[in-house]
């Protein structure tokens, strides 16, 4: 698969994914070894600078929003699907329904109220989500893998609050642990959360209020889009990553920005926050 536009990226220190070694030995990486999870979390947090109200999804989005609260967005209001808003937990929650989210929160409301008045009320600046698959327009699949509904290759957790976040948030940020042709696909195996373009094509139901997916952070780089009909475009690669590799690992003919940038590696301060304060037991930094 060839580049459609291409600018040489700077080289640097490549992030090293040592998750398997950590899981088997319990040894934490040194500061010059940055795991894929740490890389994703830092860049996800940095993307939240200037945002005010964020709907935090399962997994790395929860950790990234917490890191942003300690760095680039100290006043960000975190909203969780479980009904907690304005959370400032004393320790890292193990899930979006962990009781540790309640102390110090601005409010705890029934999920029906959260969905009806907060998500559908368009009070969310950014919905921060994960997914199993994403296509070039930012439509998401978190339901199943395979083309047989009755007997899929894998059956996944489903939408949760993702479809509501897509419909009501001003924009969606997506964090993906692995950038491969199986996760970045031309056609989704199932459309769980349709973006504005897909919703308009369906000609039924209500249109998403916001722009849909605007940022995708992966282990290879960052893709962005700004208009509802735009494709995702590679706008940054991580140090040491050739943009041709990103194109090769994408299931469609990925656009590459002529102003392609190279991301700044995680700082020692960011890594210390993640490893020593926010997630010392590596709930999410696997």
What does this structure look like?
By secondary structure, the protein is an alpha/beta fold. Helices cover 24% and strands 18% of the residues. The chain is built from eight helices and 14 strands. The chain has helices at 19-25, 36-46, 60-70, 111-119, 162-168, 196-202, 243-248, 268-278; strands spanning 53-56, 77-80, 84-85, 107-108, 126-129, 133-134, 140-141, 144-145, 154-155, 171-175, 213-217, 221-224, 233-237, 255-262. The strands form four sheets. Strands 2-1-5-10-11-12-13-14 form an eight-stranded mixed sheet, with helices on both faces. Strands 3-4 form a two-stranded antiparallel sheet. A two-stranded antiparallel sheet has the order 6-7. α2 crosses α3 (60-70) and α3 crosses α8 (268-278). The longest helix has 11 residues, at 36-46. The protein is globular, with a radius of gyration of 18 Å. The two termini are 32 Å apart. The model is unreliable at 1-28 (pLDDT under 50).
